[in-house]
Specification:
A three-stranded antiparallel β-sheet has the order 1-2-3. The protein has a two-stranded antiparallel ribbon with strand order 4-5. It contains two helices and five strands, in the order βββαββα. The chain is an alpha+beta fold. A hairpin with an 8-residue loop joins β1 and β2. The protein starts with 5 loop residues before the first strand and ends with a helix.
Length: about 100
């Protein structure tokens, strides 16, 4: 049985409920996921997606940086988080 060398506390990425999870990690691989008992959201319980749906993390085609485009016709380009968040804030301000 593989034993994790560290525990990463995080929030489940699937829905908006905000369930708290522990990722049992060895090196850069997630070995398993467990629900956190010390919170008022999920009390250690997880749905099927939350417990077993973490294989996407290691997908070779997973996006690893934000993508932006200047216009609807332009193609996407990779950028840093600062630029991407600034662009999102700017566009949200325009809609208000």
């Amino acid at each position: 049985m593989l034993v994790a060398d560290r525990l990463v506390h995080t929030t489940c990425p699937y829905c908006g409920v905000g369930c708290q999870i522990d990722l049992h990690v060895r090196g850069d691989q997630i070995l398993r996921v467990s629900g956190r008992f010390d919170n008022q959201v999920n009390f250690g319980n997880l749905c099927v997606k939350g417990r077993f749906g973490f294989d996407f993390v290691h997908a070779p085609d997973r996006l690893r940086a934000p993508l932006v485009r200047e216009t609807r016709q332009a193609s996407f380009r990779s950028t840093g988080w600062d630029e991407a968040l600034e662009l999102v804030a700017e566009r949200l301000t325009e809609t208000a």
